[in-house]
Write a structure and sequence with these properties.
- This protein is of the alpha/beta class.
- Helix content is about 40%, strand content about 10%.
- It contains 15 helices and 10 strands.
Length: about 400
């Protein structure tokens, strides 16, 4: 049995990736944790580890931005300091990459023609040389570095790892070696935080690799899902982990919308993953691969660091709301953040006894009064549905059930 820790325990926070949806989930979950865990200051933790989209959130927290402030900037676009997150930053085409690759086309085309027409190579083998013309990313992520540099230049913030009051590690992957690059650690801490976030979130195929000092870096999740060992190795008492991507279990009873959520959103059902076509199959495959690595990693952490308590917060495998959301959609940011907020509160309520005992060893208590308050919301309270709206929603559910029944009959 683990002993009670000191009055000033070392608490670390590890944030996994998951694209824009992952960042939205983590902000909503962090807001729920901030108000539900008494004795934890999420701006004064011992260590912050961010991977991919989690790097945005980790860098903000380490710079003194509270979860609620991050919500105002990234979710509500309602920052009093004029800071706001514009989704169009990540939708700018990679014009420089397109131009650089197109300049290679004449030479490569001539080489391919020579191999086929003169050297007698097969057409398929000859055309393989044109693969280098394809761009390494569709969208430019230069705006990430630009806008975060501006955001971290405000008074009390810093774009320099070495000037932070706490430890921050943002993990990317070296494209040529496949090894993890722990920006913020000794030997890596001279790289600007904004550039490290850009590198850690450079999802291959979507964004071009980020060049830093002659080397190219991509998304940190390619190596590991969480990378929490960088904090555990330094002696951490409590590790809080947030993972936004889980595979959906379509065979289990699906969660109905919580009473406190926006009533205008219909209950969404997933009878079978395959019915969603290729996007649903690929999403489930990616989520399963990422989550299996996470599960193995958590078990490894528990064995290697038995004196550290580990708390994992992630969505329910039966919840269709986050699974059906477009990973790169921003249209439902407020609703999805509210959903993550309420689901995290529900998770804390359902695990009150075991979680309270684990947290108590570190001087942390659950705010039961707030957790059990059904009127607590992250964003604006939901608007009560009109009788007509309720009737339309019921009709929609009946039509869904009828369609599923007909499909089964066929």
């Amino acid at each position: 049995m683990k002993q009670k820790k000191s009055a000033h325990p070392k608490v670390a926070l590890a944030l996994a990736g998951g694209g824009p949806l992952g960042a939205i989930y983590e902000i909503g979950a962090l807001c729920a944790l901030e108000e539900s865990l008494l004795g934890v200051d999420f701006n004064q933790l011992e260590h912050y580890i961010g991977v991919s989209a989690g790097g945005f959130i980790a860098a903000g927290l380490a710079n003194g931005m509270s979860p609620r402030e991050l919500c105002s900037i990234f979710i509500e676009n309602d920052s009093q300091n004029g800071e706001e997150f514009d989704p169009s930053w990540l939708m700018v085409p990679a014009y420089a990459e397109f131009a650089r690759r197109s300049m290679m086309f004449p030479m490569l085309a001539a080489s391919a023609w020579w191999r086929w027409a003169v050297a007698g190579k097969s057409f398929t083998s000859s055309m393989e040389r044109l693969a280098s013309v394809l761009p390494t990313g569709i969208f430019s992520n230069d705006e990430v570095d630009k806008h975060l540099t501006h955001m971290f230049s405000s008074a009390g913030r810093s774009n320099d790892f070495r000037q932070l009051k706490t430890r921050l590690t943002l993990v990317a992957t070296n494209l040529d070696s496949g090894e993890a690059a722990p920006f913020g650690r000794p030997g890596w801490d001279h790289v600007p935080i904004s550039k490290a976030v850009q590198a850690s979130s450079a999802l291959p195929g979507l964004f071009p690799p980020v060049e830093i000092e002659g080397a190219y870096y991509v998304d940190g999740a390619l190596k590991k899902t969480m990378h929490a060992s960088v904090a555990l190795e330094e002696g951490i008492d409590l590790l809080l982990c947030l993972n936004p991507l889980v595979p959906f279990d379509a065979t289990a009873p699906q969660l109905a919308p919580d009473q406190s959520e926006i009533a205008a959103f219909d209950k969404r059902k997933i009878p079978r993953i395959v019915d969603g076509g290729l996007p649903a199959v690929l999403s489930q495959t990616f989520r399963s691969m990422i989550h299996s690595r996470l599960e193995l990693g958590i078990k490894g952490y528990e064995r290697a660091y038995p004196d550290t308590d580990i708390v994992l917060i992630e969505p329910d495998h039966r919840d269709p709301e986050l699974y059906l959301a477009n990973t790169f959609s921003y249209g439902q940011r407020s609703h999805l953040a509210e959903h993550a907020y309420q689901q995290t509160r529900a998770l804390l309520r359902s695990n009150q006894s075991g979680l309270a005992q684990k947290l108590q060893r570190h001087g942390i208590r659950l705010n039961h009064k707030l957790l059990n308050n059904p009127r607590q919301h992250l964003t604006s309270p939901p608007v009560a549905p009109t009788p007509l709206g309720c009737a339309v929603r019921r009709l929609h559910d009946v039509m869904d059930d009828l369609e599923q029944a007909l499909h089964s009959a066929r």
